[in-house]
Amino acid sequence: MRWRWHLTKQALLLAAMVLVAGSAVMQSRARADEVAAEKPLPSAIEAALIMKEIVPEAPVYIRVFKEESELEVWKARPNGRYALVKTFPVCNWGGTLGPKRVMGDSMSPEGFYRVTPEGLKPDSKYHLAFNIGYPNALDRALGRTGAYIMVHGDCRSVGCFAMSDKYIEEIYAFVRDALNAGEPSIPIHVFPFRMTAENMKRHSENEARATWKPLREAFDDFARTREPPKIGMCGKRYVVNALTPVGNDPNADCPAVIGKRIAPLSPRSSKRLVKADPRLEAQGPKLKSAEANLGWKAPMFAWGTESATPSARPGKPSQNESDAALGAMQPIVKR
Q1: Are 152 and 168 in contact (CB under 8 A)?
Q2: How many CB atoms lie within 10 A of CB 116?
């Protein structure tokens, strides 16, 4: 059987090499005005997926870590466990650690969200964008306001997660392809930081810590299972990987006993999967420093007043445009 496995690996390697070579030729002939929203994944990523036996149309799971300014793209393996495909630098995000609470506070949210086909925004002024789905039902139940929080290009943010134009093209392609393959939505979970015991201790005095319990639970469960956490809502709170069925009505009463349903990997299986991850890592600017903003106070804006204006880039739309110009308040046209 070992020789068969070796031949299979050789075949995959050959296929990946042909894919890279063929894609390079095609890309060299591509039109200069190729529509960004229609660009395929880079050939290097496609080859990495083939080598790791991951189906290109497999479901996607996205995690964002504010303090580290990183966005991870994971894809499902045939066995349902997820592989880390690529980590991208988040060029910029808004505010500081903690959840978004009110429209105009310039904060980037934290919590559990989903990208739907209607959330894709190929005509964004900021190259490409997709709506993460803030506010979700729990945000609304808690009285949090604001809308149209995006992951977009252009490296500017007063509440959205801003990437470089190059990297938003790749992330957009991951999301677009998974939705086109039939996924109804893509989970995107936003964490204040990588929620290790050390980091939790370091931020133990943060006033937002009371909101982090379900995020920590989801972070830990995923580390044990490599399956995206299943999120429910009841009693005006999140419920993570509930054993007892919990719906998505944050105003409903929670069951008396909820429990937890997960399928942890053995240490050996976990190490094997980590070793098998593509684990590509993009390099780029991270303009936001959470440490430098621990004392940051969110500005409050009344309707009709001018919003905070991040530094402009040459040749880009004027930043006299408000937060709406960055996608935080501008409605999305369904396509």
Answers
A1: yes
A2: 16
- What is the residue-averaged pLDDT of the chain? 83
Q: Which residue has the higher pLDDT, 31 or 58?
A: 58
The answer to whether 195 and 215 are in contact (CB under 8 A) is yes
Q: What is the CATH number of the domain that holds 86?
A: 2.40.440.10
Query: 237: which 2 tokens?
Result: 């709170």
Whether omega before 135 lies within 30 degrees of 0, making that bond cis, reads yes
The per-residue DSSP string of 189-223 comes to EEESS---HHHHHHTTT-TTGGG-HHHHHHHHHHH
User: What range does the domain containing 230 cover?
Assistant: 35-326
Instruction: State the pLDDT confidence band at 56, using cuts at 50, 70 and 90.
Output: confident
**CA angle, residues 293, 298, 299, in degrees to nearest 5:** 130
Report how far residue 317's alpha carbon sits from residue 98's, in angstroms, rounded to the nearest whole number: 29
Residue 78 lies in a domain: yes
Residue 12 is assigned to a structural domain of this protein:
no
Residues designated catalytic: 152, 160
**Kind and range of the H or E element at 175?**
helix 165-180
Write the single-letter amino acid at 248. Answer: N
244 belongs to a structural domain: yes
Q: 15 lies in a domain?
A: no
Q: What angle in degrees, to the nearest 10, is found between the helix axes of 43-51 and 2-29?
A: 170
Per-residue confidence band for 293, with pLDDT thresholds at 50, 70 and 90: low
Longest CA–CA span in the chain (Å) reads: 71
- Interatomic CA distance for residues 249 and 226, integer angstroms: 26
Phi and psi (nearest 5°) for 82? Answer: -100, 150
Q: What is the mean pLDDT of residues 30-44?
A: 78
Distance CA 38, CA 1 (A): 42
- Predicted TM-score (pTM) of this structure: 0.82
Q: How far is Cα 144 from Cα 109, in angstroms, rounded to an integer?
A: 10
Question: Which of 297, 335, 305, 300 is CA-nearest to residue 322?
Answer: 305
Cα 236 to Cα 232: distance, rounded to the nearest angstrom:
10
pLDDT at 20: 45
